[in-house]
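Dear Dr. V.,

Thank you for agreeing to look over these. As mentioned in my earlier message, I'm a first-year student in the group and I'm still getting used to reading structure tokens, so any feedback on how I've presented them would be very welcome. I ran two proteins. I've put each sequence directly above its structure. The first is here:
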Amino acid sequence: MRVLVTGATGFVGSHLVPALRAAGHDVTVLVRDPDGYDPPSGVTVAAGDLLDPGSFEHALADADAAYYLVHSMRAGSDYAERDRRAARNFRAAADAAGVDRVVYLGALGEDDELQSRHLRSRREVEGILGAGAFDLTTLRAAVVIGTGSASFRLIRGLAEQLPVMFTPRWVRTECQPIAVEDVIEYLVGVLAVPDTAGETYEIGGPEVITYADILRRTGRVVRDSEPAVVPIPILSPRLSARAIGLVTDVPSTVARPLIHGLKTPVVARDDSIHDAVPVELTPFDTAVERALSGTRQRVHPVAVEGPGQ
């Protein structure tokens, strides 16, 4: 199948592209700066920017399917508007090109519980893409554990640097973290199952745990001891983000929307994805160990089916 990947230089995209090649797909990636991207063998590179109509449409010309992995949170406080514009531009171009399927990686959380701009923006992009003429498959995930994940960098930095953490009350919020290898297996797998076209799935790891437990267990792997996590009610997301910017390599501008999102429970309530794409889920501690070592595990070739076969 001829597949376009947007957001190929990001955390998930950089893992997805080689997995798609291993599964036998012809892969094109859309990047703003081709000179700054070193593609895996056999991958075609197309230059363009989804925020600049007229610059990127050529990348969709022969695509049977596309992955939408674009998220502008690192670009500043106007990221929601940028994401809105990029999604609309992509939708129009994909419709004009006659793309059959689009796969989008969104965020878990019930609609009436999405307290942060970050999570609401992810859901808004999902709605914009869902209005396209193509069949949209959405996978909703919580924190993705892996090398390069901003969320995991934040967690790792805190666990490494602080034996005692005074935290906001969000540490009691439930989360269902998932290993990046499992996310990739789902992303590649849905493309090989025609019945997943037009469907929305919730994906998560094998455990539902609180953010406090995530911090403690990550600390156990990082430094062989659990940090003490002490929730206190007076810490605001702004203050928390500033503190995180001082003790981790995650900028406070990125940390702040992430922290706002931590107030929302992100747990998979529907397990129908297991019937469509069976995945042997990675235990949380194993995912952390792999992320710390920077290793990439398990790139499974998946039989290619669908248009363009």
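The second protein is here, in the same arrangement:
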Amino acid sequence: MSKSLQAIRGMNDILPEQTPLWRYFEATVARLLDNYGYKQIRTPIVEFTELFKRSIGEVTDIVEKEMYTFEDRNGDSLTLRPEGTAACVRAVLEHGITGGGQTQKMWYIGPMYRHERPQKGRYRQFHQIGCEVFNLDGPDIDAELIVLTWRLWGQLGIRDAVKLELNSLGTSESRGRYREALVEFLSAHLDKLDEDSQRRLKTNPLRVLDTKNADTQAVLVDAPKMADYLDDESRTHFEGLKARLDAAGIPYVINPKLVRGLDYYSKTVFEWVTDKLGAQGTVCAGGRYDGLVEQMGGKPTTGVGFAMGIERLILLLETLEQIPEEISRQVDVYLCAFGEAAELAALTLSEKVRDQVPDLRLQINAGAGSFKSQFKKADKSGALYALILGDDELAQQVVGFKPLRGQGEQQSIAFDALAAHLATCIVQG
């Protein structure tokens, strides 16, 4: 017997009953970003592998362990994108849209791919919405990115469930000095480090700071602090960011162990975290990457951005039961038609109503059926109202109008008054 077909582990279908919440979330974010002046960019999901090696860093977990990399028919090494920033940088360089110091404020949405151990809120195909800003170097734009996410949490009703953590990694020079001090300290306590941290000490020592191993964390209590190695420029930038967040009334905590998992970050790094989702606590994260464009072959160009995990935020909305009632209802009105003449009239009438009430979600019964079966489908659709059209109604040029979710008697509405009546009812409903 052949093996039954199924999705690849960690790559999930989003079923019709789930997509309304996704569409609500995506539309809410898109509307907010439009209002802040960000423009959407759409990049391919496949890029040359070298792009991610050069941007993310060859000794990161993502590049070493997690990327979906393959050789195409031309012998080129290609990779399914594991994150969105590198592709945006490649795009602005390729098309020259940051040349001459042009400011670009852009956002993207789409699937990313990492070969990780699948668990709730963490998948091998996952979806992100992110922002990238180029050629603005002050703390004001860092603050704007954080402020707009704070506004988003308010619109979604989850502000009380998330916490902002901040840190500054300084410039590459100050980070280099700190790396030397950290390596010297940890090397003196090598026997107390877990195996993974010992490996990272040789390749990416800053990642030791965010280890989950309790014994290594105990060693890190006395480790050098990044704040003591910050250059004056980075310290001034960080103080400017904190002053703006204070002015906006956004609470935050300084987390000196926050380093992020990508090599390209400098100065500001931040994470929005929650304790409502177990181990998968980060729902949005980002920071500044002022050297990345130059590292990728471009002219010196500052950059800052963030990415939010859609799956985790959807899970958080469900956990907190912050799902607007209206998105669970996909139909406003269900039209039941009985008999061929009524079905033909229903088609014509429904299209006229749609012309006059464009936002109305009107579904016509398909597949005929008895009065009882059609009303059963009308109820199951979640519609607020049912319309009834049979031979008697057709003869009088009226439609039966019956509320399905509340008080009210069935009444007859003339064809030419139906659109206005439905528009009023839906607004009030």
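From my reading of the second output: The first strand starts at residue 39 and ends at 40. The mean pLDDT is 91. Does that match how you would interpret it?

Kind regards,
E.
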